[in-house]
Amino acid sequence: MRRRTRAAIAALAATTALVLAGCTSSDQAGPTQNSTLTKVLNSKKLTVGVFADAPPYGVMNSSGEYQGFDIDKARALADSLGADVQFVSTTNASRIPMLETGKADVIIAALTNLDERAQVVALTRPYASEGQLVVVPADSPIQGYDDLAGRTVAATRGSVPATILETEFPQAKPSLFEAVADSIQALRSGKVDALMESTAVVAEIRASQKDAVRVLDAPPLAPSFVSFGVKMGDQLWLNYLNNFILNYNISKAANESYNKWLGMDVPELIK
């Protein structure tokens, strides 16, 4: 009787172990098989939602080719996966729906990682940071933010820089314009001592004004982070993208891209 009982217990234990092993194997295989990471590795094709008309992040040139700050990131990501990249044009409004409907594997289109946005889309670690910078004439004596006291600083009306000037630089003299072009002209003509604009806008100013201007060597004001966006629920894909960005942001390629499109080195904030 005791032998039969021991045999029954042993059989039950063996059956339980097999069931548990089967469940574990299924749990591990399921997410891997269903992950976008697996799909991209198998198909050797990566579909990326990008801007086509938002310099310096992404534009389509006259030859129909995409180029820009975000495009560099997308190509580097595809290379890391051994995949060909396929670009799909997106807009501010269509970025998240494009993910939800599976039209893109990842969105790389200046997606600021707002808290409310993180409730509907999975956001990676930052691959870039935005902020407000100050531009001055190349021969200006202004060297830092403290030197703005008593100086006339241009900004566009209703913009973040206009608010910053009001709240953080009460000793400066704001000169508000309706368009960035007007601010640039005021700086060039000497009507203002400095100009405050976003990182992306400042990059365009530096590209157009060349050596006539310089950017203050100081941390960006009102910094915000920019991330890749992916569909909720794919942790393996999110893990891979985070690892890619971690390695990419400390690379020479990342620094060259930052300097080419934004006129600055990769910020320490996102390394």
Give the topology, please.
Layout: H1 2-34, H2 36-43, E1 45-50, E2 53-54, E3 58-60, E4 66-67, H3 69-81, E5 84-89, H4 95-100, E6 106-112, E7 122-123, E8 128-137, E9 152-156, H5 160-168, E10 173-177, H6 180-189, E11 194-198, H7 199-209, E12 213-215, E13 221-230, H8 235-248, H9 252-262
Parallel strand pairs: 1-5, 1-6, 9-10, 9-11
Antiparallel strand pairs: 2-3, 3-4, 6-13, 7-13, 8-11, 8-12, 8-13
Keywords: Signal, Transport
GO cellular component, one term: outer membrane-bounded periplasmic space
Organism: Mycolicibacterium smegmatis (strain MKD8)
Short description:
With 271 residues, the protein is an alpha/beta fold. It contains nine helices and 13 strands.
List keywords for this structure.
single chain, 271 residues, alpha/beta, D-Maltodextrin-Binding Protein, domain 2, 2 domains, ten-stranded mixed beta sheet, three-stranded antiparallel beta sheet, 13 strands, signal, Solute-binding_3/MltF_N
Going by helix content, strand content and strand pairing, the class is alpha/beta
* Distance between the first and last residues' Cα: 68 Å
Q: What is the CA-atom radius of gyration, in angstroms?
A: 26 Å
How many beta-strand runs? 13
Q: What would CATH call the class of the largest domain?
A: Alpha Beta
CATH architecture heading of the largest domain? 3-Layer(aba) Sandwich
Number of helices: 9
For the record, the count of structural domains works out to 2
Q: CATH homologous superfamily name of the largest domain?
A: Periplasmic binding protein-like II
Kindly report the average pLDDT value: 88
Query: Which regions have little confidence, pLDDT < 50, spanning 5+ residues?
Result: 1-29
**Main pleated-sheet profile:** 10 strands, mixed
The H/E string reads: HHEEEEHEHEEEEHEHEHEEHH
Under CATH, the topology of the largest domain is which?
D-Maltodextrin-Binding Protein, domain 2
Task: Report the portion of residues in β strands.
Answer: 15-25%
Helix content: 40-55%
The outline comes out as: elongated
